[in-house]
Amino acid sequence: MTPTARVSLNLTRHRGGLTEAERVRKLGQRGAVLWLTGLSGSGKSTVAYALERMLVGRGKHAAVLDGDNLRFGLNKDAALLKESSGYGEAAARRFGLGFSPEDRAENIRRIGEVANLLARNNVIAVTAFVSPYRTDRDAARSLASPGRFFEIFVAAPLEVCERRDPKGLYRKARDGKIKDFTGLSAPYERPLHPELTLHTERESPEESAQSVIAFLRAKGIV
Amino acid sequence: MTPTARVSLNLTRHRGGLTEAERVRKLGQRGAVLWLTGLSGSGKSTVAYALERMLVGRGKHAAVLDGDNLRFGLNKDAALLKESSGYGEAAARRFGLGFSPEDRAENIRRIGEVANLLARNNVIAVTAFVSPYRTDRDAARSLASPGRFFEIFVAAPLEVCERRDPKGLYRKARDGKIKDFTGLSAPYERPLHPELTLHTERESPEESAQSVIAFLRAKGIV
Questions:
Q1: How confident is the model at residue A2 (pLDDT cuts 50, 70, 90)?
Q2: Of A7, A14, A105, which is closest to B99 when you measure between CB atoms?
Q3: For this structure, is B208 an active site residue?
Q4: Cβ A68–B13 below 8 Å, yes or no?
Q5: Is the pTM of this model over 0.95?
Q6: SS3 at position A35
Q7: In the 3-class helix/strand/coil scheme, how is B82-123 assigned residue by residue?
Q8: How distant is the Cα of A121 from the closest Cα of chain B, in angstroms?
Q9: A212 φ, ψ to 5°?
Q10: Complex ipTM above 0.85?
Q11: What domains, with CATH codes, occur in chain B?
Q12: Cα(B160)–Cα(B42) distance, rounded to whole angstroms?
């Protein structure tokens, strides 16, 4: 028997003692995954934190997952795994995440799993990642319970995002210092059927967050 | 510049808009990591779910992370990554987790990161893993904010655990069908200074859970 086969055989699924309906009644909210997608500089993180502030202000548990923060934790790169987790060279190379297509897919997979875990535990998970590929976003959607995953397109046009350039990344990409930069030298696949679209080029982060909250109300999440 | 160096330079830490005190006031609870450790069959998962049931029953957000469940999600093995996540052979081998020391360390690291993320978002994360090595448990502790990580030793003696053998694993290990089985052919390093010890050989899961809740009250978590 291969080690892998043995793994699967030794595991049994464990069930908690509370039904979904009991959890919702006791906690006063459903869980959900709000998957914000859009170009760098479109305002994903800003809207996500405005939304978190509003939801928590109403006593609702919400949690932002964003690329910049997760890259220092769950999805560290090899250098950080060596430096702060004491990993050896081989383990750090194996598990550390960079920006290759394979690494990006694993980055998004781990985030999707964590967002789904939060949602299953009645937390509103707000993810803020470029997540340029439809196949990755669909994979994240497929993890969630039906009706609990909402793809939210943060739709500021490229010109607006590049003008803002809050982290100076567009400039670096134009100068050739970053390869494969989404929107310039790497594709961004627009959502085909997002549950909601936010026009952050003409509304404030608070206005965008308000429209997400109106949407969550309509869906019976809060 | 290496790709790894570029990663670190392109990232900036992102801050939410709410202080910890505001979150606690609005949500009515602090977050914490309750790290249950003990032999297979000691009752970790049973106590964890009893505790979750009690906490949620009081309107407190709690989430159980247990090995059997995470192994089907965030910490899937290579076979499951291929089967359910559409990974190719190389990516599945690289990111899939088995039971080698390196894989176990990464398993625990990811769990520690997720538990800490839950705790930072005011959820009481209850982890239920054998987690036999002190160094791995200390690594999980080091991720959490001071005073938010509680190591709880589920201390049923080996003879009791082997007699229970709820998954038939001790039998398989005695028959040589599982190598490196914690407590028999692989070490279990007892906690040196656990914040709490549960004697599940002589108290019911509900009694154990009650003593955890009394502990959380004393610490000001709930």
A1: very low
A2: A7
A3: no
A4: yes
A5: no
A6: strand
A7: HHHHCCCHHHHHHHCCCCCHHHHHHHHHHHHHHHHHHHHCCC
A8: 6
A9: -65, -40
A10: yes
A11: 23-74+101-218 (3.40.50.300)
A12: 8
